[in-house]
Structure formats: structure tokens, C-alpha cells
Design goal:
Blueprint (H helix, E strand, L loop, with lengths): L20 H8 L15 E4 L15 E4 L1 H7 L19 H4 E2 L6 E2 L1 H7 L1 H13 L15 H22 L5 H15 L2 H7 L4 H10 L5 H4 L3
Antiparallel strand pairs: 1-2, 3-4
Length: about 220
């Protein structure tokens, strides 16, 4: 999961929390803060602590961007005062907490267990909160995250094959630009970073392409 930084709260007084959407998108890009899917329609401003359960409706530190699928699954489960029971992409090293080696995301069990039971539980709580590994059982289930994530994974795998052929040729810079554009269009930053996990040059391109990404987490071992 892409770790992000929103920066300081905008120097503006908002009347409605929905007015923060353009500021969040400008700083983080139009991607879900949880599943990383591109948000092609209007992004939803998500409250980490649900406003229906006492969460601060206007506090900048309580806001993220979300797709409708993650927002619906999260619902109003996290009440005021419960935020510390979860990992959050704008607060924690979510990049190392989850694995994207296969078709479905997984908890990075070895990494998290080394950090202790409490850290493992917080990461698991977030993973389950938004049902990051959900696979729709029928077309009637409205959740496109699985399908779109695997489309992005296929794009990344194809790009890796092409990159391995041209990275020592004069076509290198053109192909890097193509990778950057395709990754931004297809989203799922962590999927792309996993496919190119052994190529620091491409990883730097990806980190810079997705604005608001926490470089210190994503480019460290």
C-alpha cells in the first residue's frame, strides 16, 4: 500500500469536508489511498475515524481519498478514538506491511511479526477493514478492484519484459517515459513497484510519478 504525505493542512477555512477533495487530489493524485485504484470519477473524501461515530468531519489529519469500494467496506467501523488500532497510509510504513507478489495482496507476515504483535495486528486490521483481498463471487457484486488491479499487473509485467530488452539501448529514455505514463494511467503503485522491485532506476521513476509518495519508505529495503 502506497505510503503518502498530505503535507500541512491548506491555509483555507472549509465549510464542507467535500471541499477538501481538490486539495487532497492535488497532493496525492486521483488514486484510492487504500487499494491504489485510479479514481476515474469523483473521488470520495474518506474519514479515518467515521464522522457518524464522532470522528472530526473537517480535521485534515482525519481525511484521505478513497474509491467507493474501499469507502463502502470501511463504512463507519472506526469510531472516534479507535484510529490507533489501525495502520494508515499517511501515518505508517504501509509499503512494507503488505505484499503484492501474486494476484491478491497479502500481509507481509515476516516483516510485521519482526515488529511485534501489536504492529502486525494494526496492519491486519486495516487489511480486513477495506477487504483488500476481496474477490467478487458474482457479477452482481460491485467491486472492480480485483479486475482493475490485475489489469495493472499485466501491464507492469509486459512493461518489465520490454524494459529488459531496451534498457541498454538508445530507446531507454523513451521506454521509461512509456512506463511512467502507463503506470500513472493504470494505478496500483505497489503492484508496479513489486514487478520492478530489483530495478532501482524504474522504482525511482514510479515514486516520482505518483505525487505524494513517501520516498523514504518505498526506496528502502
Amino acid at each position: 500500500m502506497r505510503p503518502v504525505t498530505k503535507g500541512e493542512a491548506p491555509d483555507k477555512k472549509f465549510k464542507k469536508y467535500q471541499e477538501t477533495e481538490s486539495y487532497l487530489e492535488e497532493r496525492l493524485g486521483a488514486y484510492c489511498s487504500f487499494c491504489e485504484m485510479p479514481i476515474n470519477h469523483v473521488p470520495e473524501v474518506e474519514h479515518k475515524e467515521a464522522k457518524a461515530k464522532g470522528g472530526d468531519e473537517m480535521a485534515w489529519e482525519n481525511l484521505l481519498l478513497s474509491c467507493k469500494y474501499c469507502n463502502t467496506r470501511k463504512g463507519t467501523i472506526v469510531a472516534k478514538g479507535d484510529k490507533e488500532e489501525y495502520f494508515w497510509p499517511d501515518e505508517d510504513d504501509t509499503f512494507h506491511a503488505f505484499l503484492y507478489d501474486g494476484i491478491l495482496p497479502e500481509l507481509n507476515e515476516e516483516y510485521l511479526q519482526n515488529l511485534g504483535e501489536e504492529t502486525w495486528q494494526k496492519a491486519k486490521n486495516l487489511f480486513c477493514l477495506v477487504q483488500l483481498d476481496n474477490v467478487p463471487k458474482s457479477p452482481a457484486v460491485k467491486d472492480r478492484r480485483y479486475t482493475v488491479r490485475n489489469e495493472a499487473r499485466n501491464y507492469a509485467l509486459d512493461s518489465k519484459q520490454g524494459w529488459d530488452k531496451v534498457k541498454k539501448t538508445s530507446e531507454k529514455e523513451i521506454y521509461l517515459r512509456q512506463i511512467e505514463m502507463l503506470a500513472k494511467a493504470s494505478g496500483f503503485f505497489s503492484v508496479w513497484m513489486n514487478v520492478f522491485k530489483d530495478d532501482i532506476e524504474v522504482k525511482r521513476i514510479l515514486v516520482n510519478a505518483f505525487k505524494g509518495t513517501r520516498e523514504e519508505y518505498c526506496l528502502s529495503k
